[in-house]
Amino acid sequence: MNHRNCFEALDRSLTDILDSRDSHIETKLFGGKTVLLGGDFRQILPVIIGGSRQDTINASLSRSSLWASCKIFRLKKNMRLLSNLIDSNLRTSMNTFAEWILNIGDGKIAARKFEEEEDEATWIKIPEDLLIKSTDDPIHDIASVIYSGIEEKYYDIMYLTERAIVTPTNETIDKVNAYVLSLIPNEERIYYSSDSICKASICEEDQDILYPIEFLNSLNFNGLPKHELRLKVGAPIMLLRNINQNSGLCNGTRLIITQTATRVIEAKIITGNNVGTKVYIPRITMQATEHKWPFIFKRTQFPVRLCYAMTINKSQGQALKHVGLYLPKPVFSHGQLYVAVSRVTSCEGLKILIENESPEKEGYTKNIVYKEIFDDLISNNTSG
C-alpha cells in the first residue's frame, strides 16, 4: 500500500470515529471531560478595577453559567497547620487557631460597628497574644520581631524563605522593604529604569512637552518595578514576570541576590522546584496594563522587587513559618484579612501590628467579608 492509500485509509477511519461519537457531546461543557476547578471563596475575589462590591461578586465563578453543572467538594482540614504536630496540647491549640482562621474567612467572628460606619459591622477584636504593641516607629517594631537577628542571618536562605511581612498596599511595602534593606551591612546598588511612551499611542510631536522623562520616572504601576531599584547582595527579591518557566523563573518566584552587575543580576532561587539554582536576570521592557493614562507606558528595568514585605494579594499561595501582618490602615476588600492570617504554618508564627488613631479601636481591625459569595455553595456533597 502506497502513502496515498495509507492516508486515505486513515482519513476514512477518523471519519467513522467522528460519525459514531455521541451526538450530544458537542453541547456538553468542556466536551464532556471532567475538569477540576480549585479555589477558596474565602480568599480574595477577582479584582475589578473601579468596580463595586456587586461587580466583584458577579465576576466570581459561583455566578457563572458553569456553576449549575459543578459538584462541590468542601475541604475542611487545614493541612498547613496540621503538619508536623507532636503532642496533644499543641494539636489542640493548632485546631483552635485553624478554627479561628476559618471563622475570619466566613465572617463568623463577632464584629463591632463604630459610629462612622453606615453599613454592616466589620471591626473585630484580635487576640492579645497575636498583637505587637506599636510605638512611634511601627516599622521598626514589626521588623524587629519578624526579622530578629537579620544583621547576622541576612544571607541564610532558610531564614529568609520562612518569614515575611504582609500589608495591604504597595506604598507600605516599599517603606518596610527600604527599612529592612538598610539593616543589611552590604553595599547598596541603585538601578534606574529607562521609561518611554509607545510612539503609536500619542502624537510624537507633543510627547516630550506633555510627558517629560521626569514625569514618566515618577509613575508607578501595579506589576511593574519602580524607576529607582535599590538592591544589595543577600537581599531577597521576587520576580514580577515570567522569564523562563523551565528554569523556574516565573512570576512570584523568590530569589536571593548573589551578585549585582551593570547589565544583569545574579541570583539563587529559594522557592519552587528549582531551589538552589543559580540564574541571571536581565533587564526587560514591560508595558503597564492599567488604562489610567491616555498612552501606552513602557519601562525597561529588572523585573524584580524586594520581598522582605509583600502585599496581601501577592502573598496568596505562600506558606511561611513567621508572618508579620502590618496594618497602618485596615484591609479594604473581601478575604484580605483571611489570606494574611492563613499564610502562617503555626499559631506561634503570626504577629499583627495595628495602627489605630482612636484609643477606642485599640486591638480592633476590619474584616471585610462579602457573605453573599457563599450563598450558592451547597452544604451537601462535601468531602474532608
TrEMBL record:
GO molecular function: 5'-3' DNA helicase activity; ATP binding; hydrolase activity
GO biological process: DNA recombination; DNA repair; telomere maintenance
Gene3D superfamilies assigned to the protein according to its UniProt record, in alphabetical order: 2.30.30.940, P-loop containing nucleotide triphosphate hydrolases (3.40.50.300)
Annotated InterPro entries: DNA_helicase_pif1-like_DEAD, P-loop_NTPase, Pif1-like_2B_dom
Family: Belongs to the helicase family.
Full protein name: ATP-dependent DNA helicase
E.C. designation(s): 5.6.2.3
Pfam family, one: Pif1_2B_dom
Chemical reaction(s) catalysed: ATP + H2O = ADP + phosphate + H(+)
The organism of origin for this protein: Ananas comosus (Pineapple)
